[in-house]
Design a protein that fits this description.
Blueprint (H helix, E strand, L loop, with lengths): L1 E6 L5 H11 L3 H6 L4 H20 L3 E9 L12 E11 L19 H19 L4 E9 L8 H15 L3 E6 L4 H6 L3 E9 L2 E8 L9
Parallel strand pairs: 4-5
Antiparallel strand pairs: 1-2, 2-3, 3-4, 5-7, 6-7
Helix pairs in contact: 1-3
């Protein structure tokens, strides 16, 4: 099986939503965005909008990993499938155009927890980065069916390589499951905090090239 990284398209939104629910299964995700009909519709609309924004804005990159099996190029076997995705944000020090927007969370979600979590991540990013231009890994997910094939690392490295090319630092908000991968690629933890009982989120910063440097 071969894996190819390419830009996500608006029409990929339903398949990426499937990957989202397959990959984000911890207790925090189950509370914030359970796999219900209204939350699925919300996430599909979110990914469609994100892909459209990536097509028209320099500040967003939305990439996918497509799995292609033997014979698929010749029209045989199953169709190619989306195995993973990542959304990268690029800030030049300007204000986030979506900052302050009121999000209408679906009824099945825990709207208060969603608001608290995402506003907390934004505060952590500003505390760690300030007004410096930087890259930010907004979301990364890999379908567990394609686990242990290095896809998370490839999606991560795609953005880190661009940050290095532009000599920019990177911010990542990590769940416990992702921390080891991010540390392996040069990120360091700057603050850990409890979001719900038993779930600790970790704010991480990666200097250019993954080498820790003093400001």
């Amino acid at each position: 099986m071969e894996f190819t990284l390419t830009a996500a398209l608006p029409e990929d939104a339903p398949a990426i939503t499937d990957v989202f629910f397959a990959s984000f299964t911890n207790a925090l995700s189950q509370r914030m965005t359970p796999d219900t009909e209204d939350v699925r519709a919300f996430e599909t609309a979110f990914f469609k909008n994100a892909a459209e924004e990536a097509q028209s804005s320099k500040g967003t990159d939305f990439i996918k990993v497509v799995a292609t099996g033997p014979g698929q190029e010749q029209g045989q076997g199953q169709d190619p499938v989306i195995a993973g995705f990542a959304i990268w944000k690029h800030y030049e020090g300007e204000k986030d155009p979506h900052e302050g927007e009121k999000i209408e969370w679906p009824p099945s979600s825990d709207s208060a927890l969603c608001e608290s979590f995402f506003s907390g991540v934004d505060q952590e990013r500003k505390k760690a980065i300030g007004d410096q231009p930087h890259y930010y890994l907004s979301m990364l997910g890999v379908d567990p069916k394609f686990g242990r094939q290095g896809l998370g690392g490839r999606l991560l490295k795609w953005g880190l390589d661009r940050a290095d090319q532009e000599q920019l630092i990177t911010f990542i908000s990590s769940s416990p499951a992702g921390r080891g991968l991010y540390e392996k690629h040069g990120s360091r933890a700057v603050h850990s905090y409890e979001v719900i009982p038993g779930h600790y989120e970790t704010s991480m910063v990666r200097s250019v090239g993954g080498v820790r440097r003093c400001k």
